[in-house]
TrEMBL record:
PANTHER family for the chain: UPF0750 MEMBRANE PROTEIN YITT (PTHR33545:SF5), UPF0750 MEMBRANE PROTEIN YITT-RELATED (PTHR33545)
Membrane-spanning ranges: none
Cellular component aspect of the GO annotation: plasma membrane
Organism: Celeribacter marinus
Protein name, as recorded: Transporter
This protein's record includes keyword Transmembrane: yes
Keyword Transmembrane carried by entry: yes
Membrane topology value: Multi-pass membrane protein
Length: 204
């Protein structure tokens, strides 16, 4: 088993690209399910969804705009390479979330099953993005920085923000939808907290 002090090879540009396409596609597919079910999610995507519900605006454009203020912080704390990868991932998920509704629709999805699968889809997508040195911006940048600086797991940081966001959503959305959304957020962040381990996965 590889230890943290062992040197690992960097990912190639192709490996990064396929991970970002895969990861953002998984997350965008989850967003389509979220919007179809009327759920909210956590992190910056959840904030963008909530704004898009209130303003009846496009999620893709709102998500792209909400992330803009975080790039300077990401540059100062994580470096230009991280910011460029994050910008690419945000642009991809913004585009995919606009495209996918034209390619698929859901006639019936059990809300509990939907919440669980949304958490799994987002978790899998974010794991691929994180392991290749990117993020989906916003709270993801802050969470990854705090994990590196303080060893506080990124999933737990994001879960704290998610609880606050869902509390605000409870004032605007039916409580049943917020409860289902909370289930998905908990699953998502547990996937990241359990699996995103720098001491095990250190290739960037």
């Amino acid at each position: 088993m590889q230890t943290p002090d062992q040197k690992t090879a960097n990912h190639t540009v192709f490996e990064d690209a396929q991970a970002f396409v895969y990861g953002t596609a998984m997350c965008a597919f989850a967003v389509v399910m979220l919007r179809d079910l009327g759920f909210i999610t956590g992190q910056t995507a959840g904030l963008a969804l909530l704004i898009s519900y209130v303003l009846k605006a496009s999620f893709g454009w709102v998500f792209f705009a909400v992330n803009l203020p975080f790039y300077w912080f990401g540059y100062k704390r994580m470096g230009m390479k991280f910011v460029l990868k994050t910008f690419a991932c945000v642009a991809l998920i913004s585009g995919f979330s606009e495209l996918f509704p034209h390619l698929i629709s859901f006639e019936r999805v059990n809300p509990v099953f939907g919440a669980v699968m949304i958490g799994f889809l987002q978790g899998a997508g974010l794991m691929a993005i994180f392991r290749h040195g990117g993020s989906l911006g916003g709270i993801g940048i802050l969470a990854l920085y705090l994990q590196d600086a303080t060893k506080l797991k990124a999933g737990y940081v994001q879960l704290g923000f998610d609880v606050i966001l869902l509390g605000v959503a409870a004032l605007l959305l039916p409580l049943t939808l917020v409860a289902y959304s909370l289930l998905g957020a908990v699953i998502l962040n547990l996937v990241i907290a359990i699996n995103h381990r720098r001491d095990r996965y250190i290739a960037m």
